[in-house]
Amino acid sequence: MHLPVPQWHTCVHWQHKEHFLLAEDTYEDWVMFIIEEGRFTFRIGLHEGVGEPGDIIICPPHHRFFRETLSPLSFHFVVFGLDGLNVQTGMELPHIPTGHIKLVKGRQRLDDNLVKLAQAADLHTLPTASYREHLLMDIWYLIVNEHHMEGEAIGKGAVSPQMEKAAEMLGKQALTGGDIRAVAQALGLTAVQLTRRFQAAFRQTPIRYVTSIRLQTACKLLAGTDRTLDDIAQACGYENGFYLSRMFKKQTNMRPSDYRKTHRL
């Protein structure tokens, strides 16, 4: 799939930042944290973890970005746009690199680019700005290249037919409240075996996969309809609005009613 080319808006080099001014923030554009030194925890929707040197954290527009430093942080804060994409909170775009990016094959080239980017950070002449954009574009291509290779690996045999079938079955039953144990049984596996194999294939557990589908659907219905919370819960595979509200708050740190007020279409 063709990926849009970024338009670079801002690039700021922060050094030895002991804490973030805001524990959470929401941006109008895409943002990218490229970490040089230090560590911090983060959560963006269903993406969470610890960012370390060499890691890249990408947050789409209108997503709540929770973060807390664990040690003094040096990083490049990059704001950019992607033409033609209107991203709403909670909606995943699997073809766009999002969340925690850890380069493997491109790590040395990333480190080289970061050294050059840091050297150019305090200069504001037009040639330097153009050079900085060149470096950022090279970093973006590194990210996209590894993201694309991961996707190809999944599509070309890295995932067994059994796990492909598991993902298909889980996706179909996510909104009807089906039982993961029933899927495991249909595939001749125990629930533990299914969880381990699914995790290895898709880097997330079956429960997290199903929860992601349910909450994406809930976000869409909250923003685009007047349906009651109980009605939306039933449409998303949950027993009632109370349980949906609890899961929604746990994963997004926002009540469904607040999400609806903020993101109403």
UniProtKB/TrEMBL annotation:
<dbReference type="InterPro" id="IPR009057">
    <property type="entry name" value="Homeodomain-like_sf"/>
</dbReference>
<dbReference type="InterPro" id="IPR037923">
    <property type="entry name" value="HTH-like"/>
</dbReference>
<dbReference type="GO" id="GO:0043565">
    <property type="term" value="F:sequence-specific DNA binding"/>
</dbReference>
<keyword id="KW-0238">DNA-binding</keyword>
<dbReference type="GO" id="GO:0003700">
    <property type="term" value="F:DNA-binding transcription factor activity"/>
</dbReference>
<protein>
    <recommendedName>
        <fullName>HTH araC/xylS-type domain-containing protein</fullName>
    </recommendedName>
</protein>
<dbReference type="Pfam" id="PF12833">
    <property type="entry name" value="HTH_18"/>
</dbReference>
<dbReference type="InterPro" id="IPR018060">
    <property type="entry name" value="HTH_AraC"/>
</dbReference>
<feature type="domain" description="HTH araC/xylS-type">
    <location>
        <begin position="164"/>
        <end position="262"/>
    </location>
</feature>
<keyword id="KW-0804">Transcription</keyword>
<keyword id="KW-0805">Transcription regulation</keyword>
